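Same chain as my last thread, 203 residues:
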Amino acid sequence: MKQKVGVIDYGVSGNMLSITRAIENAGALSRIISRPEDLLAIDKLVIPGVGSYVDGMEKLHESSLVEPLIEFCYSKNKPILGICLGMQILSKVGFEYGETKGLALIDAEVKKVTCKGVVPHMGFNTINPIKNSYLLKGISADDLFYFMHSYELCNYTDVLTLTNYADHTFVSAVEKDNVIGVQFHPENSRAAGLTVFRNFINI
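reply #2:
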């Protein structure tokens, strides 16, 4: 029986179609989640997002999804994958256009990328694993992943991968129990991204 993977639709998911297609290509059924009750019928959850931290959290509150998402994580203990902005709002607080409280599923904060290079960081880059994870099964050091972000998640305890850009090293993936976040866009990362989705589905 195929896994049912929910994809949160909260008004800042510009990559929604690409993600649902990638999930289905990876072998699962995708379900759009826009109401709390939609969470009852899924096995895993993806939180996508393109935009600002404050807009993302506002939309989640407007959709009454904040508390149900936290319950889905802790009470149901089901896997969650945050992508780009979806990874960032897993943190406790973000500092984009002021200070905004996040979902606090990861002990982290989100700050603007400060480096010698052009910001936003856009394009393909590699990831450097810090620990073993089922999410990285079949991923090699040469695999490239697509990034597009001006802010980064700062965390020291749950780092899964690091990435270097313009002599600046940032957290490109985190993992804490059933909560995973990736700063890159697997849906735009060709075969390597499909492998990441397949690994998430097969947890």
